[in-house]
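Database export, one record per block. Field names are fixed; values are copied verbatim from the stored entry.
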Amino acid sequence: MASPLDLEEQEQLDELKHFWKRWGDLITWALIIVLGGYAAWMGWQSYSAKQATQAAALYDMVERSAMGGDLALFERSVTDIKDKFASTTYAQQAALLAARVYNDKDRKADAKAQLSWVIDKSSDEGYQALARLRLAALLVQDKAYDEARQLLSAKTAEAFAPLMADRLGDLAMLQAQPAEAAQHYKNAWKGFEPNAEYRRLVAVKLASLGSDPEDAPAVESKK
């Protein structure tokens, strides 16, 4: 004769069987999804770490070949890092370095191509802004003012907005538009931190135009 304890255990076992029969498949698939997702995440972490390590090694070669003056190795290394690790910051840094090297060697078209690549491919707003500033400078040298203005007027990271405004002011001065230049310089002056050294330079530019940096129209708040 079964004891009360035996009957209670049997009831619990029956309830467990019933529960598992009803929910077992769902629980199993949920575990598979969770564990599969974890495995995929771990795999991605490992892949990302490997990519970063390889990209860093290749960027080191880019730097060393640039400093050593081995242009053939430099160009090959830059191409490799852009082709294989385009999404990494190392590739974007390599392209920016390549632009500088090409510019120093008076290969303006190649320098522009490297900067355009950063603008198009980089997911980092800082690198994009830096590339826009440098490309705009090259375009100004070519007197391609409209293209330069388009680059400088594009939406950019907040930290770079004052520099963009300052360059727009310089561009307006080159085109004999002092009133427009003054407004751009005021925007730049207001965008820099009060203790920023560059802010003093902008103030000098405004003073040369007979303009007070504080004399800027108030921005109306949107309701």
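Remark 1: The chain has a mean pLDDT of 84.
Remark 2: The chain has nine helices and no strands.
End of record.
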